[in-house]
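The passage that follows is intended for readers who have already worked through the single-chain material. We present the inputs for a multi-component assembly, then the predicted structure in tokenized form, and finally a short commentary. You are encouraged to pause after the input and sketch how you expect the pieces to fit together before reading on.
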Amino acid sequence: MNPQLIRGLGYITASIFFIFGLKMLSSQATARRGNLVSAIGMFIAVVTTLTAMEEIRWFWIVFGASLGCVVGVLAARLVKMTAMPEMVGLFNGFGGLASLLVGWSEYHGKWAAADPVSLFTTVAIFLTVLIGAVTFSGSLVAYGKLSALIDGRPILYKRQNLVNAFVLGAIVALGVLFSVQRLDQLSGSGYALVYLELIAIVVLALVLGVLSTIPIGGADMPVVICLLNSYSGLAACAAGFVIGNNVLIVSGSLVGASGLILTRIMCKAMNRSLANVLFSGFGSATSTKGAGYQGQANPIAPADTYLILEAAHNVVFVPGYGMAAAQAQHVVRELGELLHDNGAEVRYCIHPVAGRMPGHMNVLLAEANVPYEMLVEPQDVNPTMEMVDVAIVIGANDVVNPAAKEDQASPLWGMPIIEVDRARTCIVLKRSLNPGFAGVDNPLFFKSNTRMLFGDAKASITSLVSEFKQ
Amino acid sequence: MELNATTIPLLFFVFVLAMFLGVELIKKVPSQLHTPLMSGSNAISGITIVGALIASSREGGTAIATLLAVLAVLFATINVIGGYLVTDRMLEMFKTKAKDGGKP
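Having made your guess, compare it with the prediction:
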């Protein structure tokens, strides 16, 4: 059969699989099959490509692909569920790097042969390299922040946005210079220079990826991860324009669009604009903290907490990053079961931006075998919060901060929160009274119906569980 | 595909339609599924492996161009394999009130 035809049919089949896969991924009942459908689409795309290629360097392809398989399988199997956000970030970065390398390799081939390259192709190569490099280095920074290899707090310096604008301006200027030159008309030094321009673009784009990610604080990481996910799709899409391949364009733009939608959902959940997330350095020492709340926090001992819980009929758990950090999800589930056996209605209320990744808490609680019907969203619990006997806040902070609706000066003002302060009793599990990741003081700790259970979340819950068992 | 005045507008046509389709597909997704959706779509962005395969076997490709492309194959494969497996691992845990689970 004609290779053109094989390619056309194979790629459209793969695209259909990707579309159905994504559709199925957005519903609980079909999600797992959806992922499989999408993986089959990827398999079809790869087989089609290999079938329609005239010359194949098998040795090198098998070498690269098998090494990639080993690394991919090991990483996916060995990673702990609590380390999932950084692992997804890292995979994402590798996708960006791969697109960058594809663009570079294509250009190198054309450069070495002094091919007459059209303006369209050079612009596409420029965009592939730029987006791919920003995705890669940005994801590495996100990985570092999420895995605590580097400080999660925003790194800010004077005239930061100016520096970033300058770097971006330099990249665009170089990009124009790079794109307008026709390789077949260059000679001598100009011929070498155009290649140097490409290298400079790669280096500057890597720098830009780092510079634009370091001012973003850990609590805003869900937004950044979504955005980088979108970029990696757009990088693949740009690579598709370089080689004139429509399956790359289709799947790349599907990912680009879905990443943008997720980014918007995350921003909405925090009542902030994307620009505010990217440029404000939210949660740094220099941004406003709101009124420094004063007052007496009421500490409580595990034995007294047990007495409150034992009498409760309606309990809501509100997990946050602290639960992930303390690896407390299994003991939390155990406590939830004990409360249920004691006759209480138990629910887990999850804020969309709790944790370091969209849906982070859902994954952890699912790992601990909490049935997903027990996981509810803030709008399901808030209207009836007065009926809740005990709200147990486990390592969550900003998403339960009442300053969001009480204090107009607070940086959190207007953010939809889980209104645990309206529950009859609110028990906050926390190491100390320090403000959360965003550095915003939390008046919840000083409310008259709040009790602070200080200590490591896992240790505290474990002692509650043993109280119940006695 | 040969890039010329006929095919280039077609590629843009496909691009624009796919962007709109992507937006419509993801519009209504429960927040429970944000993580798997993200890591699943992340695996799809590994489609750049197709570009890497093509670039690795260009006729008369120089050693450096091939080396870059093989590295691209390597990283794209990690993205694809790792992405799909991690997503599957996550979704495997998303259980409903199971009959066999015993406790609610």
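Commentary: The radius of gyration of chain B is 20 Å. Confidence is low (pLDDT under 50) at residues 98-104 of chain B. How closely did your sketch match?
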